Amino acid sequence: MPAASSTATPVRVRTAAASTQPESLPPGAKKVKTVPGPTPTRPWSPPASAMGSGLGSGDSASEAVQPNVAAPAPDEAAGDNGSYTFQQFWAGGGNGELAIKVNVGSGNLFIKELLGAVAGPGVAPSASLVFNSQSVPSKGAAGGIWATDWDLTGLDITSTKVTFYDGTGEHWDFTGSGTSWTAPAGVNASLKKNSDGTWTVKYNRTGQKLQFNSSGWLTNHTDRNDVGSEYKYWKGGAADGLSGYILQSGPGVGQNFADGKDDLEFGYQTFADHPAALLASTTQVGASHNGLDTVEYARQPDNTLTSVNGHVLPSVNNYHRSGEQWTVTYDTQGHITQITTYPYAGTQPSSTPDRTIAFTYDSANRVTKVTQSRSGETSVVTAYAYSSAGTTVTDPRGNTITYDVDSKYRVTKVTDQLSQTRSLTYTANSDVATSTDGFSTGGGAGHVTTTSYDSNNNATKVALPTGAAAQAIYTSGTNCPAGTTGDAYQAKCTIDPSGNKRSATYDAAGNLTKSTDTTSGGTAESISYTRENGNGTVCGGAQGQVCTATDGNGKVTKYAYDHGNLATLTPPAPLGPTTYQYDERNRVTGVTDGNGHATTYTYDNFNNILTMKFANGQKITQVWNADGTLASKTDTRTGATITYSYNLLGKQTAQTVSTPSGSGISATVTMTYDANGNMLTSDATGSTLTYTYDKTNKVTQIREAGGTCPSSGNPAANSGCTLFKYDSNGQEIARIFPGGARQDTTRDASGRPTRITAKDGGGTVVADVGYAYSSSGADTDLIQTRTSYIEQGIPAGAVTTYSYDSKSRLTKAVEKSGSTTNASWAYAYDKSGNRTSQTRSGNTGSTSGSTTYTINAANQITSTSADTTTWTYDAAGELTRNGITGQTYTYGDRLEAATSGTTANTVFGPGNGTRLQAGTTGFLSTSAGLARSLNGTTAYNWPRDPNGTAISYNGTSPHYYVLDATGSVIGIFSGTGAWSGGYSYTPFGERRFTSTGSAVTSNTVRFANGYEDTVNIYKLGARYYDATLGSFTQFDPAGHEANPYAYASGNPVMLVDPSGQFSIANFVGGAVGGVVGGFVGTALCGTAAVFTAGLASVGCFIGAAVGGGLGGGIGGAITAGLSGGSLAGGAADGAVSGFALGAFGLLGGGLAGLAGAL
Asked: Do residues 304 and 11 make contact, with C-beta atoms less than 8 angstroms apart?
């Protein structure tokens, strides 16, 4: 092990045997065997020798910006909660195992390092080390300023005040007496003293509970169904109260400490002046306790933690964990000054460091500089300066961003690197009340998004600057007559910006059991769920897990469990069941699909997949770097290998694809980055693209190899330069191509595009499309009309009016030129979102007439009125023959489309995601998307912007795309700025009209910026999309969509699905409803922040079960049951760091999600 650069010699950590003790101990230390005992009865107290006044101490003074922001007192602004804004740093560690971030309001350095976790239902066992630079040294088990999250979780109880410590370093004062206690402002939680003298802290919006004994010691952390983790303590003289074991428990799980499974065990050593110090943590799996996944620590004689060895020691089967070791140095006050990581070399840590991250502080323990370094690379430095008004951050490129901070260290205003300002106001409960966008710069009024709340601090309404608003109702009344179930913090009804309504029904524990469309004249769709009871007799699950899900058509999907793990998913026939197998750490080791094809998985002890073996014997092998990044993967199907390299910041710097001849394109792609992590160059297309950015890190130039960009004015003809311009919100308003051709975008006050105009190099308008969002004079969240001022094949000025059902699915598009209808499309759906009919009339580009569809219980088309043959599917839900066209497909054991008609496909990995070859055409893709293709001597490539959107294509010469609001290519310019021609589409993306020029006809990126494989068939990530049907040819592999086949949730006017796994509002560009989209998750999905200001919470990830996505295997609520929550209350339960920036309209999302959550 490398020596720590510290004044004392660290203890060496043994890495050659499965031991929880170091090779030697500091002076005065002795080994201790941990034995579980009863929960301590002495009063709990925090580990630090002195604790300051927390932000939750009940202070509800003026919410205005304070003119003099004092430096925080010790522990005053520590921890991790949603009212803070953080900057996060990467120093290795995959799967969320290491978080390093600086609170820009208080200057606190917050570090969280995962000790261990076990998957399972409810709140599964998880434990972490926590560091707050503004904490004071303690005598806790971790030593110095470090603490374990369980050490930091407890109740400090007096007769009139109970202080709740949340596991991150934050603490909050509840006031009262007896059984009546009042929460402080900013905390969405309740405190209850139970009749037996114990205590319960319940998070209002999630239903999670922390149970404490009468002395304030943590005993259980559970979900709303009382399923979760139990805490056992070590009783040993003066060491009474130190944690010994953590175990998953709960009704129906069927496990206990005697099982020897699913628990985290902690070992200690004692010192003459310290009762016990954390020595090791081990994830115990299996009755043999074979020592897998052990994390060991080395210390200085003063008990300061100096080394963390995050590697499994050899187990009985000599299996080694891939990971890295890190050493820590400190200043005289115990603050971390440097973390150094060392990769593993064989079975021992290398003597050569990999990365370092160093910190400096001012006298108030605030971070003033963070320096990230790696041998052979330029160091990356971020600096912080503090004043009475707030904090100024100098980014690694030397540009400054200023945060105005109030007395609670909340960000109230941001002035970015271009001096553009955005601001926030808060309620007395620290919820965001208003956010004002960048048009407030220079004293402008700005555009304001507002959020309203009820007396329980539930968000009840969010309104965009243009007026579109969504509502959530928490009590029964005129607008919600059926709202009689659930607690006061669960939305009973919602109303979306178009006036569509939904109601929700909950069981006694607060689990959703039914969601119904209650819109007058709406679909009346109802989705319902049955759940496991307290004894596991319904479907073998833990209490509250979904046993059945019934879709809008009344078709039932069944779920069965084994000790809380999903064992069998049985969809409606004719789909076959999918079964799952698990290891002792509850990781999926085998999946047998509906076709009976089995895939097996192996893992390292960071839970990275090492191998995937398919039923036909083919195998994918993956190798991981010590820092958690993927190093390489190999597929035995073709022998192809892909290797990766990364820089100091974890950015991918190289990808090498090696394939046999005829199985794709072999190439090495290299990328470079600036100090902020912006990509500067990429040669993915076969030649180098160069990217230039403004001070706020938005791309301003993309230059092709050999090209030049002007210092002012337009790019010259054939210059290979594309310029980008932005408004005060950082949204694109213009892109200028070689020869002076351009695309200009006008936006409304909510940031939505209202007009997109393209001009050739001579200034002639060649494409022009407008959008409006108002219906009957009221703003909505949906496009109501599209005006084709100039669009290929459409009468100039024609207006298309869109109609939607109460699920926001497109039902009609009527295109009129004046009062004359030029074209129209009508669509009908069943209650599960399957298209049941389509009617075309007029100048649609296709044959006019109606087609009706018959749908089976599995949401599959079984016949249509236009059939020429029969429709067939396999038991995994994959279309094998289209009954209209006769097109056939075959699939392999990895659920990939092996053939499409007579074209054979070669893929890398599972599914269709990485396609190497189709027929005689080879492909090369990167994480940004498809980069190039090659068929004999015919080659194409697609330059992309930093977000992965194709902006042009090159065949024999470059051509530049004009894009509409959803990213569809509606026109092409040549390299001289001349108009080459354009495209138009039906609402769901069928070809309508196409110019005849070769530059237009040879282009294959078209609708929704997707790759058109054959006419009207698009390859979109994991699946193939048939635009003539408005549906995918394969079942949803992720379980995110309400209907497993429908494209874009039936709304292609607003949504796209580039990955083939979930729909997104591509055109929004950030400013539309980021706050509203967050509101959806918080108000309606039960994932809201414990600490308020969390409206931009992670959203509703019970999607598959709640949104009706009955497929996808382990999706939605099912996945939630397999993933554990952290003990650290604030962060674990939805407290979203950095929300202040999100509220400025930098998030995606949309108002439609508000109602869609139910």
From this structure: no
